[in-house]
Design brief:
This protein is α/β, with parallel strands linked by helices and 359 residues long. The chain contains 12 helices and 12 strands. The radius of gyration is 27 Å and the shape is globular.
């Protein structure tokens, strides 16, 4: 081999070595970048969603054993045997479960007094800080009259024998609200698809607008799977989610429009502090009603008391939007059709969705 050939071979070896070094450097950089990316993105467990929600193809709820629906209104009928009717010496009442249960108790004293006057029975307010405890109390006969948030009503009706009779009204019109996904005003997130790889704050596992509806919308409409495509946490309430957006604590949050309006009016968040990236169809805000096995005459008195109660000018008004003038009759079969459709996608492995997962 000539000297020039030897030099050429040597040069090829050097070039090859440099190429190999470059490839190794690129691989190392890619590995480091991947590890950094893993640290920045939340580490998730897909089984977590299955455990909490049982998210799957929609399956209609079936009524619990012992409940019947002969008239097809999807609500439990009163027991056919009079011996199974209950006529409590004292009625137990609660409004929507909330971490601020003490404040709710004070606010709803006017309705407590009105119920007592119309029924002729003492009425005691019972505090519930979360919906699972509230539903359990209905099921076990420890709660006779109550108001339940939108998302937990399908379970309350089918599993606990709750009879929805009314919803807040503005004049003769039923009040409605929408689910909104909001982000801080300076966020790079401009549309739901941008939530991929991000974190969103849900309120509680049983909330319609705060959890079930946005999770279902992100999955069905935008093909974003919880845990796999985005991480979620529980804020424990709409007020906390709104406050978290105002403070820049959360990247995104799903909230009810009426509660967002209340927060704006109260000065808890400025309209300029957030951007809405999604708005849903309209939902009923809540339902108030009683347990199915009350003595019919007593149930009629409770219904009459609720229908003629006007919260305006009382402390109860603080728990509702300013324009609510009272309650109007509600049809669970018709008014909760969309809510039921969403709810039917959620079947937690352990039975009921839990709100204990705060991660």
């Amino acid at each position: 081999m000539t000297e020039s050939q030897q030099d050429g071979a040597k040069g090829q070896k050097i070039s090859m070595a440099r190429l190999m070094v470059s490839i190794i450097v690129v691989i190392i950089i890619a590995i480091v970048a991947f590890q950094i990316g893993k640290q920045r993105l939340p580490q998730v467990d897909a089984s977590r969603t299955k455990k909490i929600f049982g998210l799957s193809d929609p399956q209609p709820r079936e009524m619990a054993e012992g409940l019947t629906d002969a008239d097809g209104d999807l609500v439990a009928d009163p027991p056919a045997e009079q011996t199974k009717w209950i006529d409590p010496q004292a009625l137990l009442f609660s409004f929507v479960a909330s971490p601020e249960a003490e404040k709710s108790e004070q606010a709803w004293q006017p309705l407590v007094e009105h119920l007592a006057q119309v029924t002729g029975k003492p009425v005691q307010y019972i505090r519930f800080e979360n919906a699972p405890d509230q539903l359990k109390a209905i099921e076990e006969g420890r709660l006779h009259i109550t108001a339940i948030n939108t998302g937990n009503i399908p379970e309350a009706v089918a599993s606990c024998g709750f009879v929805p009779i009314a919803t807040p009204a503005v004049g003769e019109q039923k009040q409605t609200y929408t689910m909104k996904i909001i982000v801080p005003a300076n966020s790079p997130i401009k549309k739901p698809e941008d939530l991929k790889g991000k974190e969103i704050a849900f309120t509680t596992a049983g909330s319609n607008s705060g959890c079930k509806a946005p999770m279902e919308v992100l999955l069905r409409q935008f093909r974003l799977n919880p845990d796999a495509d985005y991480h979620f946490i529980f804020s424990r309430g709409h007020e906390q989610s709104i406050k978290g957006i105002a403070e820049g604590k959360y990247q995104a949050a799903a909230v009810a429009s009426d509660l967002l309006d209340q927060a704006i009016a109260a000065g808890d968040i400025e309209e300029s502090a957030f951007t809405t990236i999604y708005t849903s169809e309209h939902f009923p805000p809540l339902a108030i009603g009683y347990v199915y096995n009350l003595k019919p005459e007593l149930a009629d008195k409770i219904k009459s008391a609720i229908m003629d109660f006007n919260p305006q000018g009382t402390t109860a008004a603080s728990q509702l939007t300013d324009d609510v003038t009272g309650f109007t009759p509600v049809s669970y079969k018709d008014d909760w059709a969309l809510v039921r459709r969403i709810d039917e996608s959620f079947r937690p492995a352990a039975g009921k969705a839990t709100e204990e997962d705060k991660s």
